[in-house]
Amino acid sequence: MKVEFEVKRYRQSVTQGMVDILINGEKVMDFGDKIEMIQDGEKYYGEKIGNWASKIPDTKFIIATLYHTCDNIYHYSDKVKEKLNAIMQSE
Q1: Farthest-apart Cα atoms in the chain, separation
Q2: Which residues neighbour 84 within 8 Å (Cβ) at sequence distance 6 or greater?
Q3: What pLDDT digit, counting tens, does each position of 50-84 carry?
Q4: DSSP alpha helices (H): ranges in 2-91?
Q5: What's the CA gap between 29 and 5, in Å, rounded?
């Protein structure tokens, strides 16, 4: 079984960002991405426009999809479980 997580970042403007989480190419979740001013030498993720980019690594979004602190309310992990069950059924 191969399960591939992908993080796609989108920018509506210089200071607004969104992130889609895909499993094997299919979207399972999206999050807002905090876009901040990047100082010289500071690490950033995704596209840097002017001096604005995200300081949040892709792995943090994947972890939030799998183990969100409010999963008992939002049930984010249920979408991941559904996708994994569909992959298992197709094998």
Answers
A1: 49
A2: 3, 23
A3: 999 999 999 999 998 988 888 888 888 888 888 88
A4: 58-67, 71-74, 76-90
A5: 11
